[in-house]
Each structure stands twice: as structure tokens, then as C-alpha cells.
Amino acid sequence: MYAVIAHHYWGTMGGGELVSASAAYTFDKLNIKPILTGTFKFNPYKYRDWFGVDISRYEVRVLYPVNVKAFGLWSRLFTWVLPKRIISRQRHERGIAWFGAGVYKPILKYRIEGLIKIIEYVHFPLEISIDKRFKGTGLLYGEDPYITERYSRFPMNVYWQVYNVLAKRFLRSNPFTDADLVLANSQWTGNVVKMLYGESPIILNPPIAPNTQILDFNYVRKYEERENLVVMLGRFSEEKRYHWVVRELMPRLLREMPNVKLVIFGGATTRTQLGYVNRVADMARGVGLGVKVVSEGSVLGELDGEHQVYLRLNAPRSEINDVMDRARAFLHATINEHWGIAVAEAMARGLPVVVHKSGGTWSDLALNGEVGLGYESADEAVNALAKLLTDSRAWGDYSIKSLERVRDITFDKFVDRLAELVRRIL
How far is 406 from 426, CA to CA, in rounded Å? Predict the structure, then answer.
């Protein structure tokens, strides 16, 4: 038996890639041969360094033998092409098709014929963003700030409209009738799916990568040994809202705490990402902040009195961990983030987190305020950060809660749970 793990772009270090690699590992553990399919060429050996998951021994097939760091939306639309070829050529053998998006309408006939089982892991239901039937949900294009902020201006609005047209051709109609197993990455995503289809998927949170150390609380650096430092982590892109942080939040926070520093760690390898770095830096300078951009190959070093904002590009994990261990708070600014792997990584170091009151970061990581602090406005975010920066008792409580939460989402627990669910449909 084989399993096709269809993912649109394997060549980056993100939550979707970690889930896909973890699924491949799980199928292998079940003696089901994994076949990795994607749109563009990638290096599977990097997964050992990125996540500690070895996928290099699995068969890999890609549509295009080049590594293109662009067209992420469009590439999602063609994840069905290679699975269709594989299934049609292996009619003598039953298989499983794993999809991280609902773009698999062209292969449904093989499920009807009994050749495959389909598993859909819902990172986010694409259809709610593009189907006008869902107007008023707050998640349609034009209503969701996560999408609108990124795709409302030329040329990205044209890019979005082409995606909109093509997606409707390849999207399945209902995951609960078209798939054998429907999973979702967070309770927030699960609630969105239920709103659309009246049924709830099984919630299977993405795992902490096996090479991400979850600290014992006794080894977490104490509050008194830390600096008035806030850390953020995530690729440099519009939806991460770093521009909002430096323009709206940091000036307010500095009025409360003049000696606070902000370090933003982010991947920046494409022209678009580097352009966004420059935009964030210009915005910060425009409101009177001192900004230091630290490029790949350089060292962040000590934080001086001249700069309040540090933009650190493509830093090694050791440096990220070191700065997290010096900080008193982790800030996440994305609205409607579907999960939030960076937030989970910060929690694994015992760092208290402040997240927007939306998405999976709020529902499943901060547990609606039980584990982390939340906000909706800049003033609320400032109050939450100030609490962690100045209140040692509150800091200690949230640090312990962070560690307790992430111990429930380890790699081994993900694999065991997914294996149990797969066995049910075989």
C-alpha cells in the first residue's frame, strides 16, 4: 500500500511543511510507502536540519524541476496533478491520498472506484475566502484583514482574482462527503469548517518539531535574569503585521517603558520579503524609532541604547533560542493565524506569549487566555506586554503554562494519534 502526501511547496520551513513531513513519517511507520508530491523542486535533506524529521529516503515527485520561491497560492491549485498520475498508473494497488487543501476534485473518481482513501488536513478552508455565499463571515476576501491586507493592492489583487477563478474548478464540494477522514489544525479552523458544512473535523494540532527542545521549567532562565525585551518570529511578509507593530504598538509601549527593545527574527530570501524588510524599517524610522537591520551572516550581538527595533534576517536557531532566553515576552501580531508554529516554539522555551484574539494561536495555543495573553487593539497589546515585562509573578505563571501546553503537542503524540486515525479508515 502507498500514500501520496500532496503539498504545494515543500521548499520552505513552515508549519504546513512540518505537518506534511510528519504525515509521511507516520505512513512509513504503518508500513505504507510514502510518496511525496509537490509543485516545485526541493531538497528533502533539509528537513533533518529544519525539523529533525528525515524524509530523504522517501520517493519524491515534482511537477517542475526548478525551485521557485513564488506563486504559493497558484501552486496549491495543482497539487492534485501528480497524485492523479500516480493513482491511475497503480490501479493494482490501493492507496491513500493526503491533501493539506481541498483542491482534489479531479481525483474523486478514483475514490468512487475504491482505489484510494482520501485524507484532508484542513489548515484553512480555502473556499470561505473566495465564495460569495460566505459573505458576512468575516473571512471572505474584503472582510478578512489577513487576506485583504496582502491581496488588495495591484498587482497582488490581480494575482488573487486569477487564483479565485481557478480554485473553483478544482475544489471539492464538501470534505465530509468527498474525503474518508477530515482533520483540522486547530479548534478555530474546526469551527470555521463546521460553520460551512455543519460537521466538525477531528482536531489534530501540528506537532512541535522533534528537534525543538521543550525546556524543563527548572532550566528556564528566571525573570530577574532577563531583559526588557520582546521577541517576534516568522517570515517577513505582510500578514505577519510587523509594520503595524513598529508603527502603532512600539511607540505606545516605549511611552510606558522607555528602555524596551524589540527583536524581529524572520526569513527573508525573496525580493518581496526583502522589500517588506525595508518597508518595516522605513516605517519604524518614520515614527522616530532607531532601527538596526542585521543580515544573514552577521551577528545580532548586544542590544545598544541607540536602537529600539532590530530586524534579524535568516538567523540560526541557536541565536533565536539565545535571544528568546533573554526576553520576557513573545509577541505574535497576525490576525486569524490558522495555527502559529512560531508561537509554539517560543512556548517550548518557557516564554510567555501575547497573541491576537483570533485564529488557532488564540484558541489552541493561548487556550483563549488560559495559557497566554491576548489583545484586539494596540493599547490592549501594550497592556499585555507591560504586564509580562514588569510583573514577575505573572511572568512565572505564564511561563509554566506555556511549557505545560506544548508538552501536549509533541511529535510522538502527533504520530501516534494520526496512526490511530488512519487505521480506522483502512
Answer: 30
Exposed/middle/buried for residue 299 (C-beta within 10 Å: 0-12, 13-18, 19+): exposed
What local confidence, expressed as pLDDT, does residue 77 receive?
86
Of 190, 163, 165, give the one whose Cα is nearest residue 363: 190
Residue carrying C-alpha cell 521549567: 217
User: Is 398 within 8 Å of 373 (Cβ atoms)?
Assistant: yes
- Using H for helix, E for strand and C for coil, what is the string for 150-180? HHCCCCHHHHHHHHHHHHHHHCCCCHHHHCC
DSSP 297: T
pLDDT of 412 reads 97
Distance CA 186, CA 367 (A): 11
Mention every residue, 6+ apart, whose C-beta is less than 8 A from residue 190: 122, 184, 200, 201, 203
What is the model's pTM?
0.90
List the one residue out of 231, 218, 224 whose CA is nearest residue 264. Answer: 231
Rounded CA-CA distance 314/268 in Å is 6
Query: Rounded to 5 degrees, what angle do the CA atoms 389, 390, 393 make?
Result: 100
Which three cell numbers, joined as nine digits, stand for 19?
A: 505537518
Give per-10-residue mean pLDDT for the chain (426 aa). Answer: 95 91 98 96 93 96 80 81 96 95 95 97 87 74 69 78 83 96 97 94 97 93 96 93 97 96 93 94 97 90 90 93 96 93 96 97 97 98 98 97 97 98 96
Residue with cell 491576537: 356
pLDDT at residue 160, rounded to an integer = 78
Residues 6+ apart with CB under 8 A from 3: 23, 24, 27, 32, 33, 34, 35, 95, 96, 97, 98
Which residues lie closer than 8 Å to 237 by C-beta, 6 or more apart? Answer: 150, 272, 273, 276
How far, rounded to the nearest angstrom, does the alpha carbon of residue 69 sit from its chain's CA centroid? 17
Residue in 417, 422, 339, 425 with CA at minimum distance from that of residue 34: 422
Let me know: does 333 contact 240? Beta carbons within 8 Å: yes
Nearest one of 376, 378, 388, 387 to 247, comparing CA atoms = 378
- Round to whole Å and give the CA distance between 139 and 336: 9
Cell 493526503 locates to 98
Cα–Cα distance between 384 and 380 in angstroms, integer? Answer: 6
CA gap 123, 189 in Å, rounded: 7
Q: Are 402 and 353 in contact (CB under 8 A)?
A: yes
Identify whether the C-beta of residue 312 lies closer than 8 Å to the C-beta of residue 300: yes
Amino acid identity of 14? Answer: G
